[in-house]
Design goal:
The complex is a heterodimer of chains A (about 100) and B (about 475).
Chain A: H1 5-14, H2 21-38, H3 73-77
Chain B: H1 6-15, H2 20-32, E1 39-42, H3 45-60, E2 72-76, H4 103-110, E3 114-119, E4 139-140, E5 143-147, H5 153-160, E6 167-171, H6 177-183, E7 186-189, E8 209-214, H7 217-227, E9 253-257, H8 267-282, E10 286-290, H9 298-313, H10 331-342, H11 345-358, H12 364-387, E11 390-394, H13 410-415, H14 421-426, E12 430-437, E13 443-450, H15 455-468
Parallel strand pairs in B: 2-3, 2-6, 9-10, 9-11
Antiparallel strand pairs in B: 1-3, 4-5, 6-8, 7-8, 7-12, 11-13, 12-13
Classes of the chains: A mainly alpha (about 100), B alpha/beta (about 475).
Chain lengths: ~100, ~475
């Protein structure tokens, strides 16, 4: 079994998600079942198959380096949980 | 009035038989008295009435002539609407008011459509039943004890229950087609890239596609025509020329994948989908059984790719710029407390799964392997479309399950997407059309799949079937 207690703890930490012990146990069991089912993928012969991220081949899209429309700062800050007149406010990161 | 299709209403508005204000009032009355829990937010009625007057004037003066000018429309709540709350059915976006509209919404509004409200869905599109919503489950209008399907369940239920004329949904692995099937309405997932994703809150960017849900294929085609087209705000949007549609299906070759008519698929579902193909053969199309060799591994490939992309896309919900923020004394704790309190169980499960398949040591065995499987799926579809014009199969193995049934068995819920997810992996267009009712009185949906960029053919096959059937 790939998903043990430590692995759940590890991916939760990477995902910035806190789980109490009950939730962690439930997730371990759920993820275990899902990954067990996904084992079938290992039987597929993918030797020399190039992985494909998009269904079509895409070319890089570039635009001219000019300002093309922008949002009003106040309007964008209206959705912020905490703000000043011109910035988002977060808990203190660097001690004075 | 709510019985009308969007195109019928558009016609009556143009002829002056129905006023735009009258249509807007009827749509608001219907949405406000929803019995299916299809709406999360209803737009400001007064504002829309003012909009209705402007549109009426533009229609009168000939400035506005689109097929849906003056027609009220409902929008799935993961598609941004300027100034109108957009929650993705999540606590984490409970108070989010977008400062802009999605390109698809902008195009509809320019064509004279009026946004009545935002439809309920699975949280961030993650679910197949619209039960993972923070705002409660959507109920199926044919049986209140059953699910609407998901994730665009509110859109499908509202259109089916005559609480909306038509709606805009999104489809990542079946989220337009499967609820349309469960609710007995028509849903269309366009070729990946033909409709701009700008303003669609991302779940899995390589799979997500906006599309219409309507009473019939003609309504879906009219809406698709308006929203399709290249958009510079979406780097993956396409402007390849559209091939023409069809009116005559004599000589068209249709493939039926035998895997979709085998064990595990409800007999009544099979019977009604084959009934639809009988209509096409009677009209001169050739219908043949084929094999879909990838059917066993589509679900693993899909859920690995979708959750990997989701784990990355959803990292933006951190309590800083918008949405819910948990109280905490330091930044890292604030991030994790916000996300743990703001996301529901299914979303957390998929973020963890996606993080796992992308983590070092497991990336090759899961994520890379899934991308290789995706390449194989695309190759198989290419081979099929060298010989056939369209593929027809059930949308789902069963009709709508009972409420609650899917919440206790995640794998069972994932497996209900078995006939829809490969279409997203290959970027193909597909329509879900109602083709009968089972003995419980629940609608059965058939899926018509075309090669990429044959959106008009797929829509036409749906329309041709509906012109000849009374379902």
């Amino acid at each position: 079994m790939v998903i043990d207690e430590k692995m759940v703890e590890y991916v939760a930490k990477l995902s910035r998600i806190q789980l109490d012990s009950e939730q962690a146990a439930a997730m371990q069991s759920e993820l275990g079942k899902i990954l067990e089912y996904m084992e079938v993928l290992k039987t597929v012969d993918t030797e020399s198959v190039e992985p494909m991220a998009y269904a079509f081949s895409l070319t890089n899209v570039v635009r001219h380096d000019v300002v093309s429309g922008h949002f009003d700062r106040d309007l964008l800050l209206e959705n912020a949980p905490e703000r000043t007149d011109e910035a988002f406010v977060v808990p203190k990161v660097v001690e004075a | 009035m709510m019985e009308l299709t969007a195109l019928e209403l558009g016609e009556k508005i143009k002829s002056g038989e129905i006023g735009v204000s009258e249509a807007v009032q009827a749509a608001f009355d219907a949405a406000e008295s929803s019995k299916t829990n299809s709406f999360i937010t209803i737009n400001d009625r007064e504002k829309c009435m003012a909009q209705a007057q402007e549109i009426q004037e533009k229609i009168r003066s000939g400035k506005l002539s689109s097929a849906i000018a003056g027609v009220p429309i409902a929008i799935k709540d993961n598609i941004c609407t300027d100034g109108l709350r957009t929650t993705c059915a999540s606590k984490i976006l409970d108070n989010f008011i977008p400062p802009y509209s999605a390109t698809a919404v902008e195009k509809l509004e320019q064509a004279g459509a009026i946004v009545v409200g935002k439809c309920n869905m699975d949280e961030f599109g993650m679910g197949s039943t619209s039960e993972t919503s923070y705002y409660g489950a959507v109920k199926n209008p044919w049986d209140e004890g059953r699910v609407s399907g998901g994730s665009s369940g509110g859109c499908a239920a509202a259109v089916a229950a005559k609480e909306a004329f038509c709606a805009l949904g999104s489809d990542t692995g079946g989220s337009i087609r499967q609820p349309a099937s469960y609710c007995g309405v028509t849903g269309f997932k366009p070729t990946y890239g033909t409709v701009s994703r700008y303003g669609l809150l991302a779940y899995a960017s390589s799979l997500d596609q906006i599309g219409p849900i309507g009473r019939d294929a003609a309504d879906c085609a009219a809406i698709y025509k308006i929203i399709a087209g290249r958009d510079l705000k979406d780097g993956t949007s396409l402007d390849l020329p559209e091939r023409d549609g069809v009116n005559d299906i004599r000589g068209k070759k249709i493939a039926l994948p035998s895997e979709c008519f085998g064990d595990g698929v409800d007999d009544e579902v099979k019977k009604h989908v084959l009934g639809l193909t009988d209509v096409f053969s009677a009209m001169g199309a050739t219908v043949e059984f084929i094999s879909l060799p990838f059917n066993d591994y589509v679900i693993p490939a899909y859920y690995i790719i979708a959750t990997a992309e989701a784990s990355s896309n959803l990292s933006r919900y951190d309590g800083v710029k918008y949405g819910y923020r948990a109280k905490a004394s330091d930044l890292t704790e604030m991030y994790s407390a916000t996300r743990s309190e703001g996301f529901g169980t299914e979303v957390i499960k998929r973020i963890l799964l996606g993080t796992f398949v992308l983590s070092s040591g497991f990336y090759d065995a899961y994520y890379k392997k899934a991308l290789q499987a995706k390449a194989l799926i695309i190759k198989h579809y290419n081979e099929i479309f060298c010989k056939y014009d369209a593929i027809i199969c059930p949308v789902a193995p069963t009709t709508a399950p009972l409420l609650g049934e899917s919440m206790t068995d995640t794998l069972k819920m994932y497996l209900s997407d078995i006939f829809t997810v490969s279409i997203n992996l290959a970027g193909l267009p597909a329509i879900s059309v109602p083709c009968g009712f089972d003995s419980k009185g629940m609608p059965v949906g058939a899926q018509i799949i075309g090669n990429r960029m044959t959106d008009n053919l797929v829509l036409d096959l749906g329309r041709i079937y509906q012109e000849r059937s009374d379902i």
